[in-house]
Amino acid sequence: MSKEKILFFCTECGAETPKWSGQCTSCGAWNTIVEAPKERKIKQPGVSSIRTRGEAGPVSLREITAREEARLTTGMEELDRVLGGGVVDGSLVLASGDPGIGKSTLLLQMARNIAGRGEKVLYVSGEESLSQIKLRAMRIGECADNLLFMAETDMNEIREQALAIRPKVMIVDSVQTMFLPEFESAPGSVAQVRENTAFLMRFAKTENIAVFLVGHVTKDGSVAGPKMLEHMVDTVLYFEGDSTTTYRILRAVKNRFGSTNEIGVFEMGAAGLAEVLNPSEHMLRGMPEAEAGSVVAVTMEGTRPILVEVQALISQTNFNLPRRTAAGTDFNRVNLLLAVLEKRVGASLSGCDAYVNVAGGLRVTEPALDLPILLAVLSGYRNRPLPEHTVAFGEVGLTGELRAVSQALSRVREAAKLGYRTIVLAAADCEKIRDDVPKGVRLIGLRNIREIPKDFSFDQTR
Ligand code: TYD
Ligand code: MG
């Protein structure tokens, strides 16, 4: 007789341990270790591997017939880009985000677009009744008849139905509501969430049906239940946004079929999510004109240049230790830049509070934001605005030197497209792209931050 193994789980991070303890040794959470329920494992016939039907035994690379990776467009440019060019057949995509952010809406819109082109799509909801889904769908618009809906939580039943219908794409909303009756634990438990995901992965691969799985996140931002969920799927999408604004940003944190640098920007409206094809305009909306402490920066999100506003408020401190905050960017980097300014330009910032903010809800941590942050702080400190229609980008080193950044030319082009005429950047970048800049755009190449004129009149610099 085999000895029965008792396992314990952390309900926060999903770590397994052989014995109970008050604190999880993996994530440090208290009172989250629970005994794993005894599970009767029943092997599902035909769903026990990720082999596509008909394949057997090990083979050499030459013998494998590489199917051309078929990409199905979602009808939304922003979503296609984040997925790496569309939906890949037989892939499992986890769409996660806070409750109410718009995951169901996004996937419903995608389903509607795909069905509208004649492909079969199955939308399975374990959260809403069919009539609730209808109400939502009515806000979005007419749906073609080959988009089928099902309210179901039993995974075996879902599989049966899907095999009968054979859709091109299946959406399962959400992983936390689904259950496999072979496992005794409740839906949403670590064991269920893990087994459901593994089940869907096998299903997607064997049947070559693309599956989108919705997963809610916990308050600390990780996908609820085991973090290991992310290792199991092909692609993990995060849908994020401020509950106070209507803008939503979609990013891929993992993608076996594309880059993880791309973002998609959407706006939630009365008729669902609308794509924001020009995010720079939205990031700069409402920006003050000719104010001290406000600088426009060009940052890259994947292959896409986006203009953002960097703000700095510098005021006399009332504390022994000056207050520093950084919203939307790296706090330590801001502190470092303040130190560089103090040492290399002689700005006495140690007696000042400094509040730095990247407006628009985007979080930017790339080094090209150094120069804009530094200029915003300097402008706020001197209480003098930068000349109109000026943007900046560039990395700043510890001696105050300016360093080249990636994709300087695309950054300059995006700035020019939005009407900016003066671009402050590293001299090295300036020389590299000088011959290709759009007409009417003036480049100000700096070698060191000491070259920044006192009154910001860059005209005299070069
Ligand atoms: P939903 O897709 O249900 O979020 P999730 O599945 O991530 O939990 O989105 C719900 C929110 O979106 C809800 O607060 C209402 C809002 N909404 C709109 O503003 N317009 C719309 O057309 C739709 C369908 C939803
Ligand atoms: Mg939902």
Which tags fit this structure?
alpha/beta, Rossmann fold, 3 domains, 7-stranded mixed beta sheet, 11 helices, 23 strands, binds thymidine-5'-diphosphate, binds magnesium ion
In what range is the share of β-strand residues? Answer: 15-25%
Main beta sheet:
9 strands, mixed
Number of strands: 23
Give the % helix: 10-25%
**What is the number of helices?**
11
Q: Assembly state here?
A: single chain
Q: How many angstroms does the end-to-end distance come to?
A: 85 Å
What are the segments in which pLDDT stays under 50 over at least 5 consecutive residues? 42-48
What small molecules accompany the polymer chains? Answer: thymidine-5'-diphosphate, magnesium ion
Structural class: alpha/beta
Q: CATH topology of the largest domain, which one?
A: Rossmann fold
CATH architectural group of the largest domain: 3-Layer(aba) Sandwich
Q: What general form does the structure show?
A: globular
Average pLDDT for all residues:
87
Description:
This protein is α/β, with parallel strands linked by helices and 462 residues long. The chain has three domains: 6-37; 71-276, Rossmann fold (3-Layer(aba) Sandwich); 282-451, Ribosomal Protein S5, domain 2 (2-Layer Sandwich). It has eleven helices and 23 strands. Strands 8-7-9-10-6-11-12-13-14 form a nine-stranded mixed beta sheet, sandwiched between helices. A hairpin with a 7-residue loop joins strand 12 and strand 13. Helix 8 crosses helix 9 (370-382). The longest helix has 18 residues, at 190-207. The chain is globular, with a radius of gyration of 26 Å. It starts with 7 loop residues before the first strand and ends in a 16-residue tail after the last strand. Residues 42-48 have low confidence and may be disordered. The protein binds thymidine-5'-diphosphate and magnesium ion. Thymidine-5'-diphosphate is lined by residues 97, 99-105, 136, 139, 268, 270-272.
